[in-house]
TrEMBL record:
Swiss-Prot/TrEMBL GO biological process terms: regulation of intracellular pH; sodium ion import across plasma membrane
Record membrane topology: Multi-pass membrane protein
Coiled-coil regions listed in the entry: 404-431
UniProt keyword annotation of Transport present: yes
The name this protein goes by in its record: Monovalent cation:H+ antiporter, CPA1 family
Subcellular location: Cell membrane
InterPro entries for the chain: Cation/H_exchanger_CPA1, Cation/H_exchanger_CPA1_bac, Cation/H_exchanger_TM
Residues covered by the Cation/H+ exchanger transmembrane domain: 20-396
Membership in a protein family: Belongs to the monovalent cation:proton antiporter 1 (CPA1) transporter (TC 2.A.36) family.
Amino acid sequence: MNPTMGLQLLLVAGGAIGVAAVARRKGWPAPLLLVAAGLLISPLVPSVPLQPELVLFVFLPPLLYSAALDSSYLRLRDVKRAVGLLSVGLVVFTTAVVGLVVHLLLPDLPLALAFALGAIIAPPDAVAAVAVGRRLGLPRRSLTILIGESLFNDATALTLYRVAIGAFVGGAVSLWEGLGEFLFAAAGGVVIGLALAFAFAWLFRRTRDSLVENTLMLLIPFAAYLAAESVHASGVIAVVIVGLYLGNRMHLQGFGTRLVSDAVWKVTDFFLEAIVFALIGLQLVPVIEGITGYSPWQVAGYAAAVLAVTIVSRFVWVFAVTSLIKLLGRADKKPTVQQTVILGWAGMRGVVSLAAAFAIPPTVPERDRAMLLFLTFTTVIGTLLIQGTTFPALIKRLRVSSEQEQYEDRLAEAAAQQAALEAGLAELERLVAEQDGEPDEIQKQVIDQLREKSWRRSLTAWERLGGGTGHGGAETPSSLYRRLRRDMLQAERQVFVRLRDERRLDDEVLREVMASLDFEEAILER
């Protein structure tokens, strides 16, 4: 990478973080604001080309791994049929439909390249949809399906893309050859992912060092992706398998590893997603400049047709799949019409599609390559700005809510806290009984404090069922405790800082004390 390219990426990163910060403060979906900002400034700044290798080998692995690490393996297993039908079936269906329509619109375009375009724009990126859905309380099952689809659909699409490009470059490829390549990529990704998952799990059991473990976790997605891609298996599936396996076993790690891991991946996601969505918008000028030999109305018509087919094909497949699930699934898991509509509208495309389009080999005629890139760009932008901006209003309009789930979660948490309290107190009483002689006054005070802390944690969980207020809207004891203790912590911090400024306390000691106070405040926020 030359210095100019590095400076461009640095400026993009800084600007993207600033825009994302504004979006967070205003409560707006950051991906959509970043794309819009990129579109607005693209004609005003030097071209910032999107490097496919940068996206596929640098941005994609950690984003996939973080999403898998934070996903629930058990919930994904519950919706595996729906996820499979969307991440494999829908991608194949969209590839076929879009490929045929593009071939009808552009008969001079080779059929293999038409199907390559279908594979490029087939996989949705659920980042924007999930961000909006979580903020507006989309039911957990719908969110799980969207997350599961986005974890696995890239593997299907990229495999189909390689088959289509291979057919164009090397001649005809039979259906069985394409199916064999797909199965090898999927199976290879699973095998490599499991092998690396077992290896890293074994390693983590022997390190017990939060700093070392989290540093290794930063390397895991790149190791899994490169290991799989080096043997032409699916790097996407390998990364997802490792993330799901280690995420399901995170409870076996130390508390320090979990605390640091949560912070590390939140920062990583925020940073990479900001850059990725800003880069999407900044491709406006490079994409338009390559279009030659077509009138503006022709180009606009082709773009509108491909965008419409992409959106409609998802609705057709989702409603067909929903009907199938209603026939095969359990009665209590049947999706409602409202949930099906939302799932159908959550088809925003992302940077993986653009990266694949930019990776089209130079052996493809420049005129065809420019058209494929333009149609990909307009589909990505169209789905993000049309579906993304209307997605919140659709959720509110259909009155799809997770309020009942949230209440059930709080009730389950309160019951679990009560059971944990009883187990903890029983262990405390056992330890006290094993001591020789009666405890002294200091020991009694410590034991009483432990009992009171356990009781307060259980009380907090039950109070949360009432929204943190008591009868008549009065402040509950736990809420009062948290409010007063937060004010006390702030006063304590001011004293420590003053003593540091007076050179009566070293900076290293200040950091240790502040970390202790910060952890306590984090517990209060929880």
